[in-house]
Amino acid sequence: MFSIYVTGTDTGIGKTLASCALLHALRAHGLRAAGMKPVASGCERIDGQWRNEDALALQAAGAPGLTYADINPFALEHPLAPELAARDAGTEVRLTPILAAHARLASQVDALVVEGVGGWAAPLSASMMQVDLVRALRLPVVLVVGLRLGCLNHALLSARAIVDDGAHLAGWIASHVDPAMARVEDNIAMLRERLPAPCWGVLPHGPGVDPMLLAGHLRVPVLGT
């Protein structure tokens, strides 16, 4: 089964958009694919249950018939760092429920796209970093790079941290987050030269962008595209 962990250079740089586009690309090639957001802070009450906008987007982009609780095992109310949001909720983000949910999803699909929180070094709890989850699931990592001033520094530091943590950086996706950014193509070229992994695509990012249409912007090695 194909599975990937999606992280980013920061929060709000298009991880969910990239993850949904990846799901549509996988499904377009005939794979039954699902998205997973193990930890999501910032939820609203829907039909008596906490639901997160990003996790719902992943659910909508993935194969039908999958349980929300498996897609998002830890749905935390407050839009804070997961450790703080979990503390407010009187709980703690733990590895075991996430691994169990991942296993249940993996038994039902051909491919899984697991979206992290914030940037790579954002903790999941007081005792768990994202690399702990990646190691436990043995997942390669895709880095979403938010294209804005400073992205070279953020991308190179993130890539270095991923590699230094012993994870496999399989690729990166550029995400347009600042329409006023100067010399975008030059920055993308420098990222291609310096990042130790191939670019899987460059995505526009903004209100109303359809991730299904963006799937055509991606070249996913497992698909042979």
Automatic annotation (TrEMBL):
GO terms for cellular component: cytosol. GO terms for biological process: biotin biosynthetic process. SUPFAM superfamilies: P-loop containing nucleoside triphosphate hydrolases (SSF52540). It is found in: Cytoplasm. Keywords: ATP-binding, Biotin biosynthesis, Cytoplasm, Ligase, Magnesium, Metal-binding, Nucleotide-binding. It is an enzyme of class 6 (ligase). ATP binds at residues 12-17, 54, 115-118, 175-176, 204-206. Its EC number is 6.3.3.3. It comes from the Bacteria. Coiled coil: none annotated. Catalyzes a mechanistically unusual reaction, the ATP-dependent insertion of CO2 between the N7 and N8 nitrogen atoms of 7,8-diaminopelargonic acid (DAPA, also called 7,8-diammoniononanoate) to form a ureido ring. Homodimer. PANTHER family: DETHIOBIOTIN SYNTHETASE. HAMAP family: BioD. This is ATP-dependent dethiobiotin synthetase BioD.
